[in-house]
Amino acid sequence: MSDKDVIKMTLAELKAEYDAIVDGDNHTRKIEICTQLIKLDLNDAKVFNNRGNAYADLKQFEKAIEDYDEAIALKPKYADAFCNRGAAYTHLKQPEKAIEDYDKAIALKPKHAKAFYNRGNAYTHLKQFEKAIEDYDEAIALKPKYADAFYNRGVTYRKMGDEEKAIESLKAAADIDPTIITQENIKELEKEFVEKIEQTQASNKEVQGFQDILKKLEDNYKRDEKNWGVGSVVVIVLMVCFLIFGQNLMNGLPDVVYVFDMTSMPSNMSFYTAYVFFSIITYTVIRQYTNAKALRIEASNRVAMAKMFERVKHENNDYQKEFLPKLSDAIVYSTIKEKNDSNGLVEKIINGLEKLRK
Predict the structure, then answer these.
(1) Residue 165: pLDDT over 60
(2) Whole-prediction pTM value?
(3) Which of 14, 83, 315, 319 has the most CB atoms lying inside 10 A of its own CB?
(4) What secondary structure does DSSP assign to 75-126, as a single string?
């Protein structure tokens, strides 16, 4: 590389010096050369693209985008310029715009491995990990020794909670380029993977235990529902029989009494006292039946939820962290029998009726 003033250099000298430093780190010198080349030829799209790359290397992404815009304006089918502008947008945290440029680059150049790789990075920024993996796979298919694609795919698999595939991809990256990831990093990942497997196995046992508890509760509530259902039918039948035949058996009352016509109530209160008693008992039994049914439905729903959480947990590790606490809350909620306390209810009714008679 010469220290000659670019203004005094010929077109051929400028191009020769740029080619000599193109792989170096003197990005400022590259910009000086490209700027002078542009002054000499305003229609060279490649020079604008090259200066854009130099600005990008200096993290001056806005200026880089301006140069890529010029390159694309001069050469609308410039796939590399679209790809490079997409990378600049990614650095500016504008992944949607970046993806649009990568799409155009790929449409113009279907075997553009770098465009697939960069689009995978943009999808990763958007947390669209499945799409990112697809693009990394495509980049690797087009360029089998693409270490960066293997590495970023491994990182993305880690974010998805798939430690096994993450380690496999990161190892492939290290085999291609040993400097990209150290063996210590690989060993650390393997250790984390083993620990997560153990945690998952423990979680599986815990979730299965929850399901067993819920299923047992569902069976208990189903039995209660059946028993109280039979009891409800019995008391209703008894109530009807009492309304039809009970009056003839109560204290020698007349054959016919208008039960629901309070104005015709006889002075003897025995029949009506027994009627009130039967009504309360009937109401209590039916209420116990509806409570048991509600609890059985609730437990059944919780079993279904537990099974759903079990399936979801295997799809995304983040779901496990989110749903297991909720499942625990569901267990606690379902173990509380919110039945009405009917202990001593019959005795209280009898005592009340005795006081009424007195």
Answers:
(1) yes
(2) 0.53
(3) 83
(4) -TT-HHHHHHHHHHHHHTT-HHHHHHHHHHHHHH-TT-HHHHHHHHHHHHHT
